[in-house]
Each structure stands twice: as C-alpha cells, then as structure tokens.
C-alpha cells in the first residue's frame, strides 16, 4: 500500500478537525507530518482497528501495550503535543462510525476502515484488567485491584523504584539523588507527625515497608503497616528482619477498615487514598479519625486533580483504570480537605509538592529505560510498556498542572483545643 502515512495523516486530520501535531511513520515505512520532533510509529494496521472500535485513549492504549504503536524520539514531548487529543477532548464513544454525523467525516471514517484492514478488532492485551467482581470499592474488589497493580513482581518494582522501594512522590533539593529525595520525604512525614520513641504509628498502605522501617529505625516508633498485597508484605517482612526491627514493626495483609487495635499516636497514609474511591472517602476519614488518640496526627499524602466545572461529569481515566490502577479515583484538593474536616479533623497544614512528583517520575522512567530488557524479562513486554507510558504521561500531567500532589497534616484535636502543633510549624523543613 503506497504512502500509508500520508493517507493516515490526512484522514486523522479530517476526523480531528485540525493538524496532527506530530510526525507519523506507517507500517510501510512512509512518513508524513511536521519534521524535527518525535515520531509516532504505527507498526501494524491492527492498531487502526483498535482505535476505530475504541476511539480515544483506550484504543491508543491497547495498541501501545500490544507494541503496534511506538515512539521514536522524546516520549515526553510527544505526549505533551498529543495532550489536547488524549486528555482534553474527553469521553469514549461506541464506535467511530456512530460518533460522526457530518457526511464528510463519515466518508473519512469509511476510508479509515478500508485502510485498517479486515475487521473485527484484535482482542485486548492480556495485561488489561478484566473480570472484576463485587461492587466498586468493596473489600473483595479493592483486593483484586491492588493485586493487579502491585503483585507484578518485587524485582520489577526494585528495578523501577531503586533501593528505597518507595512508590510515591519524593521530596527534592536542587542536586539530590532519588535515594536522598525519598529519604527526605519519609523524614519530612515523620517530623510532621512528630513521631517519638515508643509512639504507635499506623502506616496505611505500607507498600514495601519503607516508611515503617524509617520511623522505627530513626525515631524508635512501634509501627503497624497494613497492605492488601501479599507480595509487598513478604518483601517488607524480609527487609524488616534484615534491619533487626522485628520487635518494633508488624506488617499485616489487612484492609485498613479492619484495623481495630487503636488508639495510635499517628497515622501515615502515603499514596493510598487514591485507591479509596469517592463513595468511600468519608468512611476512610472516619476510620482513621477513630483509630487516633486525642491529639493524634494524620499525614495524608495524596494525588489530586483539577476541579471539574461539573463534578458529576468526572470520569476515571480509561487507560489508568484498565491497565494501571483499577478503580482508582482522584479528588480535587478542596474536597479532600473538606472531607477530613467533616470527619472531625483539624487540618493544620497543606503542602503542595506537584513539581516534586514530576521529577520523581522522570527518574523512575529513566531506571526502567536503562534496564529495559531485564524489565521485560521480569514481567512482560506489555507490562513494561504500560509502566513507561503511564509514568511518562503522569510526569507531563504534573508538569502542566493537570494533576497535583499534596500532604495534609490533620490533628484529632481534643475538646481542650490544644492541638500540640508549634506556633510556627514550618520548622519541620529544617531538621534540628
């Protein structure tokens, strides 16, 4: 087929109503579009069939995971150029032919069908989340979602995250390393929580045990960490034993809603609330409030999204939902703060660290790309491609202020009104 790239570019621009912002290379070796930047490669016509039947982000995601489309050049720049098509148009349609009414667009869609080759579309990649059971954010379904994301191999996560095994936004200085930035983030949280020797700390969504180890080793805290991932728990217990901290730390495979052994002096929840869901967030806040002693502190570290003009129209990102964090939801910062207050907390501080997450994600992508062949061996080609795309796209989203990340310090202030916080609490930014 002669010059597939020109035909595909023309059809895409007809359907999109504007110029394609990147250069395109088709399966026949032909190229079209603006020169001098990253190139979107369509390796196989199967990709077109996916996008015809699932226009928008999901069709592109399936083709990416399957290796039918790829990028030559700067992935971040390409994602930034495509952001208006991927994230700002919104919505999935039932099919390309049903989504257009203009005769000119229908003709372009039919031409795209002919270019795509025989239908029906290929099956979704094996890495796509399917077969969910139970109501959304039930204990059973949450466990399935957590397993889908986290039980993909501790060695794979070690490759991406580095020795810290911290899977949340680091806290950067201008010239710090990833390990230093993750250490500084854990220490910042411990100091915001005013953790002292002998204090009981509950780490909700404890991951591979990094916060628990830091609080016990550096501050002498007695820590309970809970996770729904058996692989995470096994890894964390091994690390704790190697550190000689088994007398101070207990790791449980347990839903936070089933923790009943309060009160705790402090609770850390780092990158976990995104899994809770809008319908369960008040229950989450109420549960943590009940588990704290009077005067106890909560540090909630959470990704946020920009508010929608119509909040009822908010939809979960289809690629993230299908391949990365099933059932994960983001809330605007203001809603999180209000929910904590409604549960009884006094919110004493909110620190926005959006740019820090962009830096963190770029380091994780760099780790993955440097050891790509091993990453593929540890998981699958599709899984490695998922992680590269979602982390790079997330970095761009943080950089462009489409999403943010915030640390909320909240206190279960007693009736006396004595919160226990300093008059000038920002002294935690300078360790004494």
From TrEMBL:
* Ranges where the Polyketide synthase-like methyltransferase domain occurs: 156-396
List, as start-end ranges, the regions of compositional bias called Basic residues.
133-142
Name the Pfam families on file: CMAS
InterPro entries for this protein? CFA/CMAS, CMAS, MeTfrase_dom, SAM-dependent_MTases_sf
For the keyword ATP-binding, the answer is no
Q: Which residues form a coiled coil?
A: none
Q: What are the UniProt keywords, alphabetically?
A: Lipid metabolism, Methyltransferase, S-adenosyl-L-methionine, Transferase
Q: Where is this region: Disordered?
A: 116-144
Superkingdom of the source?
Bacteria
* Family designation: Belongs to the CFA/CMAS family.
Q: Which PANTHER family match?
A: CYCLOPROPANE-FATTY-ACYL-PHOSPHOLIPID SYNTHASE (PTHR43667)
Protein's recorded name: Cyclopropane-fatty-acyl-phospholipid synthase family protein
- The organism named in the record is Streptomyces tanashiensis
